Fold each of these.
Amino acid sequence: MQPTICFVTTGDISINATAKRALGMAAPLVQRGWAVTILLEDTTENRHRAEIECAGAANVIFFTQHSALDEIRNKNRIIAHRHIDVLYLSAPVARNIVRTPKRCRLVVEHSELMSHFSGLHALARFKAMFFELLSVVQADALVCASHYLYDIFSQRALHMRCHPSMLYLPYAYNERVCHPIPVNRATICGGRYAERKVFCYMGSITHSYGALTMTAAIDQLRRSHPEALLIMMGHGPAYDEVRQEIAQRQLTHHIEQTGYVNEEDIDRYFSLADYFILPMRDTEQDWARCPSKLYMYLPYDRPIVTCRIGEPWSVLGDKGTYYQAGNAEDMATQMAQLIDSGNTHLGIAPKEHTWQARAEVFDQWIRGQAKTDK
């Protein structure tokens, strides 16, 4: 009998990235014999991304919600009328409170450590910790998107005398979305990128994601390398502040803000890049998280400027270019050395980090768990 899996997600993917695994692994799991259902909030971006990434392979059910309680009711109503072998919760949050059907394995994913987010007030921190611990008690299995999370939840399970199965399974990239294309810098956009050394960043434009650190680093770098250009892709709370910094520091020739970029346009920008930037902070939040952009950079085989923290350090090892977290001067120094070295290749096999590869690992693992239960 064909096994069935239902991914339960929450929010708009452009704001809440936890649905990325469901969309990424859906088609590969179908190829491996699964019937896949995904519960997605009905938003324009969610519909767009499901169309691009799932390509009709999965049964995507869109729900509308007017409140958290309304969302919980809708999800439970949908699940109650379906046969499900594996119920996969994309995050341990209140909006994903659902009843697990009989003879169904409950899998909960941890892609961040919300209880240790800086800036959270006490009640929100307590709520996050409650759902993190509840997942250890209730779930048959936990999927952790980083080594740090795997270690944390293994320790918590041990202390709580619980025994959920554990799997380390980081994010990945979709080959339909990320595939390098030939780019002629002499002709594209009127030749504005010709003779430039292009650094590319994609992500939220926020203080915590290093927006101002990158701005200050480029301000220093352009003094010794006037050919340097940073394409800053994305939007966020610090977008206008960065724009003001660019104007004040007279960096319009060295930093290009694109705003939010659609998935189908990512290739054009990434294929332009000579180097990528992935800022990290030396905080528990960043040690725990799995930066999805890291894996999207890999198929372009360009050096990545980041920090010896968490998943970037684990994945890149001695092939990464590292600066001291939060230090714009050191970031500029590493960027300058990278340009001077003439190195424009990363040298990591990207096929190991596709959603196809992740789905294969998950499939073998979850089928093994089912055999153990018998």
Amino acid sequence: MLRALTQKLSPVWRMTLLVFLALRTADLVNAFIGIWLVPRYIPADQLGAVLPLTQAASFLALPLSILLIPYTKLLNLHSERGEHGQARALLRDAALLTGGAFLLILAVTPFLLERIFRAFQIENGRLAMAIVLSAVLGTLAPVFTETLRAEKRFALISLATIVAAPLRLLIMCITLPLRGLTGYFIGQASTPVFQSVVALADFVRRHRGIRPAPYWKADRRVFFAYALPLAAIGIANNVRGMAEMMLMALIPSAESAAYYQMTRFTELGTYIGATIAFVLFPYFTGDHARGRATAPLLRQSMLLTGLAGLGVALLLTPGGPLLFRLVGFLRDYAVSASAFGMLALIAALRAVVVCFTTHELACGRFRYIRYYAALCLVEAALAWLLARGPAALRLPALLGRPWSLADILVLMLGFAAATLVAVLLDLRARARAAA
């Protein structure tokens, strides 16, 4: 039955289904890690710090990410043209750049992480080093794995994804009991390391004997054309993410821990969108370079992502709280149906926007950054004013009660909806202009 279905699908959607099945197979293992293993070895009063620290890792690696994302675009372009010498040189330079960035990130780490450690009352120990390693390796890995995606090696990507999950589980089983949060970030680093090794080994095997070829003179305009807009979007995304996660320090630790557990389930709403965005990027890039229309495929991907995310939200609104009440080790994290529904809807809305931004990146269009970055920064500023601004602007003063998780989710949901509305208005304006 599955074979008959795949034969009816176009190559694009056939590859999407293959990667989706591989990712969901790996998610079964990752769900066990996130829902049961991590809470077992990380105390409940520290569990809420996992996502803020993960966001901090992303923030630390932001400068490196801004520099490396143009490398992925250039890798895709050169692979599309069969220019593997330039691709090899790009991989070499990305690795060298990462080595230098690692030292710089280590230098600024204390200024950012110590505040988070204090907010969540966490001892540092080796934790800062583990976070930096996880951040740097996680940022570098997409450059290497882009060689697989650019050449549409989705079967190997699927296999590596499936194998990486039990490897991560094994390392987590060793490190979590010994080092808690530090062990968690060591385990997190195992997946990008494994996937990078697989991608590099495949590239070298397929292009053995090809020497690095110069690329900078021809590509520098493309590099900066991508780097500058991506710097704006990266800063906006990370500032917003840090503002949202630091709000978690203002609510009871039981609620921030519940937020962590809920996200393990509400991520279901992003699965379709994340897979589609991953697979379609090289197709969008190739079709745009050849002058083919990409709008129909974009509409299909956004619609499918939205329907899947909405379905998950409708399922989790009543089902999530019921599951938390029925499963023994989840009872301590029981939350309201409204909180589950809001978080699932936030995930769904953002997944649809990711489909759109992936398309724009592949096509080299960055006009959307004007409204997208503005909304991110307004949300971050509002969160800061409510939580850290003058006393008259603090939420407890306005409502006469302490912060709650629902307050944070309302803020996040409002801006997620506003961003999607802005995207849809942008697409409508383009369609009218093209008519």
